[in-house]
Amino acid sequence: MKIVILTHSDCDGICAGAIALTRFPKADVFFTKPVSLADDLKDCPHDKIIITDIAIDFKEKDRILDLIKSKKSVYFFDHHILPEGFEEKIRNAVDVFVHDLNASASELIYKYFSKHLPEERIWLAFYGAIADYVDNTKFFKEKINCWDRRTVYFEASTLVLGIKNPEFECYDAKREIVSALASGQNPSEIKGLVESAKMAVKRELELYDFIKKNVEVYDKIAYIKDIEYFGFRGPSALFAATTSGKKIGLCVYTRKNYIDITIRTPFDININVLAQKASEAVGGSGGGHPRAAGAKIPIDKLDDFLRELNKLVK
């Protein structure tokens, strides 16, 4: 049976993919994202497809559902907001459906396959949870007590920061990381990853100073636009908020045909919901997690997006 793992290329996606690869060691691993999931499913010749940590693009939901129905076997593990009425439809279309907004994809897939995994693979669930700011689940808080949390957080930080630099940004390098983690290596054992993480820390500190001097403000929103540090979109958005004292920070990048926006907040605000509503209001798409979200909007709609998002911020 030909098996493929379709996962996200961030730390949680890498860890979730590594857990799946531990369970199915002969599987192929491919990285995808919400806007390309439908095309990747269309071109996928595999018998079993494991989808993990990929949000459903609201505009593509019907096409994605039809493609899933056409496949022999699909496992679905995710923690993003689903389109209204979509959960029941996809639940009935897949062999395995695991969805929880309040846990990482790594935790979800680990718990499902745990009986078939080495005990130490729980570390991957920890790393993914820490990376996605969901290290407060009941599962995490109970299980972390069995391990040295300082070591766990060091390894998670090594992975989160290490993949920010060009050496590890490409999919081939990340695929090698997935294989290494699935074989039992720790992030700090992967050649060059600790040094890459150290370089990322240095760049983040430089980035903070730069954003503090160059951040722009739109009422309750702060943003930084088209800066050099593309691999640091999350910290850039967060620094935009923290250096300006605003509730929400954006890191905005102008692409060829659209605008890519990363959104962060230091406050208890469900910015995934705000991102979805504001982006859809201007003909785009958005979503993510309560404190880490994003949006993709038409090239000429930034001012409209800022206005719509600002109206939603309480």
In short:
By secondary structure, this protein is of the alpha/beta class. It folds into two domains: 3-194, inorganic pyrophosphatase (n-terminal core); 215-312, Diaminopimelate Epimerase, Chain A, domain 1 (Roll), CATH 3.10.310.40. It contains 14 helices and eleven strands.
Q: Could you explain how this protein is built, in words?
A:
- With 314 residues, the chain is an alpha/beta fold.
- The protein has 2 domains: 3-194, inorganic pyrophosphatase (n-terminal core) (Alpha-Beta Complex); 215-312, Diaminopimelate Epimerase, Chain A, domain 1, CATH 3.10.310.40.
- Helices cover 47% and strands 18% of the residues.
- The chain has helices spanning 11-23, 37-42, 61-69, 86-93, 105-113, 122-131, 138-143, 149-162, 166-169, 171-182, 193-214, 233-244, 271-281, 302-312; strands at 3-7, 28-31, 48-52, 73-78, 96-99, 216-218, 221-225, 248-254, 258-264, 285-289, 292-298.
- The strands form 2 sheets. It has a 6-stranded mixed β-sheet with strand order 6-7-8-9-11-10, with helices on both faces. Strands 2-1-3-4-5 form a 5-stranded parallel β-sheet, with helices on both faces.
- The longest helix is centred in the middle third of the chain and has 22 residues, at 193-214.
- The chain starts with a strand and ends with a helix.
